Amino acid sequence: MYVKVFIIILCKSASRIETNFAEAIKTEHGEEVKKSDIRWVLTVPAIWSDPAKLFMREAAEKAGIEKDQLFLALEPEAASIYCKEQAIRKEDQDGGAILRRFDPGEQYMVLDLGGGTVDITVNEVCSDGKLKETYAASGGPWGGTTVNEAFRKSIEDTVGKDHFSECILKDQNGWIDFEKEFETEKRKFYPCDNVTHKLHLPNYFVQTPSLQLAEKFKAKHGNALKVKENYLVIHSSKMEQYFDTAIDKIKDHISNLLQRKELSKLSSIMLVGGFAESRVVQEKIKTYFKTKTVFVPPEASVSVLKGSVMFGHNPNIIAERISPWTYGVHTRKAFNKNIHDIKRKQTMAGKEYVNNAFDKYLGIGESVAVGRRSLGHIYNVINPKDHIVYWKVYRTEKMDPLYCDENGVYFLGSLEIELPRNEEEKKWRLELHMTCRGTELEASVSDADTQEQFKRLKFDFLRSEYGLYSNIVSE
Ligand SMILES: Nc1ncnc2c1ncn2[C@@H]1O[C@H](COP(=O)(O)OP(=O)(O)OP(=O)(O)O)[C@@H](O)[C@H]1O
Ligand SMILES: [Mg+2]
């Protein structure tokens, strides 16, 4: 029997994981697993840039994972795939409550509330059950650690910067235990419980009476945060304040998103990720967005993991994506006095050109069918003796930039191909296509006359050896 194993990774040694997995499958199911049976799914935050994603791909390949067996999944999208299969509470025609999955045409938002970041995607269920992205992924640094940072800051502000640094330096273990205790209390916290939370103070604080800790806390926080014997006692009102920054930022961001006309059909908000386990986060989001069904699926903290496995089984489940940027390549174009700046006009061999022209492929906010090639653009190779041809890829938030060197247009990386040695000095006409492949952008080049596809040498988002010029010109 053919066994497929999907593994979510963050690893140094792929082969060690493969070996352990193969052994585990053999013991449990008696099946042999070949290396080629394994499909790896590497999850990345959706708001990461293309170079950051490529960096992860390269790192995974260096760890020994075969290129064709590796898929990159966007974390909130993986969570969304998992959420789509969840039955959520809805009203039936008579106003009663029923449990149903999302129907085709329904839109829902997934908030992946992690430690560092909050990653947000909006999906709509297509008639064939696949998902389309309705609005480009967004988010920000408002995850669960924001609460810990607010706590830390209030201690620092009360004891003073110097004593605070000294405590961390001189009593590292004490401080780590203190933070761990806070983490436990943070996870238990629910404002309605109206309880206090007691943490053992680090020894440095206890053994330095000259700090006058009790007095300092009383003066600054009254009963909300006080020192009692060897403990710091946090009242639930104070604990709630520590959550406020993160929750307010999340609420504001969702409110802004809900103003957009693309999201007018949105019915539900799903909360996943570790921070979504927090009862105070759940309650506040539910209270604020009363007109939407706010739902926390079971095992919210592992929905990215479970959704990634589902994505590994069916990478085509996301059928349409929204382009987060306008993408184009650097080329030389025929000068057009109606659109181009006259100061940029150059004359070469009797023809008028503009250099540094931006040749657009995808527009920001454009809906792109996954796996469907863009229209091809044709380029001539300037020097027939060149057998390495390269394109420089740029991205921008502008819809229709004219030049690659205008403000707000950024270099992304270069694509390089190798042409067969050109003995007869053939005039090459090359056709370039861009394709949205899963979570990554793919470029392909063919001979425009024969349609022969060239092997891609490199699509390098991380560095470029090329300067300002191109060795191609738009036809
Ligand atoms: N019951 C809970 N109450 C409050 N916070 C919680 C609870 N359970 C987990 N968290 C918080 O969730 C966060 C971790 O979530 P998660 O495991 O999804 O993060 P991550 O995926 O590692 O981070 P990121 O997505 O930012 O890379 C931590 O800040 C943790 O304190
Ligand atoms: Mg996460």
Account of the 3D structure:
The longest helix is centred in the middle third of the chain and has 23 residues, at 236-258. This protein has four domains: 5-74; 76-142 and 247-319, Nucleotidyltransferase, domain 5, CATH 3.30.420.40; 145-241; 323-474, Substrate Binding Domain Of DNAk, Chain A, domain 1 (Sandwich). α9 (236-258) crosses α10 (279-288). 33% of the residues are buried. It has helices at residues 14-29, 50-62, 75-84, 145-159, 161-170, 172-188, 203-206, 213-221, 236-258, 279-288, 303-313, and strands at 5-8, 38-44, 70-74, 88-91, 97-100, 107-113, 118-125, 131-140, 196-200, 225-228, 231-235, 266-272, 293-295, 318-322, 326-334, 345-348, 351-362, 367-369, 377-381, 388-396, 409-418, 429-437, 440-447, 456-460, 472-474. With 475 residues, the chain is of the alpha+beta class. It binds adenosine-5'-triphosphate and magnesium ion. Magnesium ion binds at residues 75, 112, 114, 273, 304. The site of adenosine-5'-triphosphate (ATP) has 16 residues, from α6. This is Heat shock 70 kDa protein 12A. It comes from Potamilus streckersoni. Keywords: ATP-binding, Nucleotide-binding.
